[in-house]
Amino acid sequence: MLKDKVAMVTGAAQGIGFAISEEFAKQGADVVLADYNPKVTDVAKTLAGKYDGKIVGLVMNVMDNDSIQAGLDQIMADFGHLDYVMNNAGGGTLKPFAELTDKDFDSTIDLDLRGTFRCMRAEIKLFLKQGFGSIVNTGALGSIYNPGGMGAYNAAKNGIMGMTQAAAVDYAADNIRVNCVAPGLTKTPLNDGGFLEKILPTVPMKRYETAAEVAKVFVFVASEATFMTGQTILSDGGVSVGLK
Fold first, then answer.
1. Domain count along the chain
2. pLDDT tens, 51-102?
3. 199 and 176 in contact (C-beta within 8 Å)?
4. Of 36, 51, 153, 208, which residue is the catalytic one?
5. What pLDDT sits at residue 196?
6. Structural contact between residues 68 and 122, judged by C-beta atoms closer than 8 angstroms
7. Which of 4, 32, 116, 179 lies 20 to 30 angstroms, CA to CA, from 143?
8. How far apart are CA 192 and CA 189, in angstroms?
9. Is residue 241 part of a domain?
10. What letter would DSSP give residue 208?
11. Over residues 158-166, mean pLDDT
């Protein structure tokens, strides 16, 4: 149980971010659901009525340094400490490489890669002051074993894995762990539209991953894997070891 622990999850208004938030709540943690979408406050209320910990929504934009800092300041004012951070906010344009525009590429990099960078930088500064902390970034299986059409997204997610390794080494001696989880074929509101159905035959387990399943991996890496840092953990139904 994670009673008296505090977790923040970005991109928490839906999908994997919401599922991670609920898993932390199930395990007794206090949870801050952060998202640029104001509906996150109502989403948080749906969890607050089901679990014992303090669960709140926070409107925060990972593309804005001031918004990130204000959010972290608010968490510290309300809770006094922050144990776990899940940098999950993201998205991107999926097109064949030569069809990507500068705007497609830049917007994907700014949200996924720079957004994670901005959050990590502020979170690490906070963790250095309090003397501990665990960060888990959201990667993507598709950036390692990709089905095509993911040039900008792959660039961002591979960058996140690289930043995870760099920060892990820089702050391992400061009681700060930094890891990454790369979900497999997970059905969420962001990837509806037939994409998953085309990729499903490549999954040895022959099914989708649920958001609730991968959420357990995030919470384990954040809270239980206390000698793990700098790693990217694949939760992929066997894709990375199967030949299809």
1. 1
2. 999 999 999 999 999 999 999 999 999 999 999 999 999 988 889 999 999 9
3. no
4. 153
5. 66
6. yes
7. 32
8. 6
9. no
10. P
11. 97
140-166: average pLDDT: 88
Q: Does the annotation mark 171 as catalytic?
A: no
- Model confidence at 50, pLDDT cuts 50, 70, 90, reads very high
Cα–Cα distance measured from residue 43 to residue 57, given in angstroms and rounded to the nearest whole number: 7
- Would you say how long the chain is, in residues? 244
Would you say residue 134 lies in a domain?
yes
Q: What number of H helices and E strands is found in the chain?
A: 8, 7
Quote the pLDDT of residue 7.
98
Query: Position of tokens 């979900």?
Result: 183
Of 181, 188, 176, the closest CA to residue 229 belongs to 176
Residue 91 inside a domain? The answer is: yes
CB half-sphere exposure, 129, CA atoms < 13 A: 11
Residue where the block lists tokens 């957004």? 115
Asked if 65 and 93 touch (Cβ cutoff 8 Å), the reply is: no
The three-state DSSP-derived secondary structure of 124-156 is HHHHHHHCCEEEEEECCHHHCCCCCCEHHHHHH
Give one DSSP letter per residue of 82-103, joined into a string.
--EEEE-------B-GGG--HH
Axis-axis angle for helices 15-26, 40-48 (nearest 10):
30
Distance of CA 209 to the CA centre of its chain: 16
Question: Where in the sequence is the domain holding 124, given as residue range(s)?
Answer: 6-235
Q: How many of the other CB atoms lie within 10 Å of CB of 182?
A: 24
Which residues sit opposite 177 in a β-bridge? 134
pLDDT band at residue 240 under the 50/70/90 scheme: confident
Mean pLDDT, rounded, of the chain? 92
Identify whether 143 is part of a domain.
yes
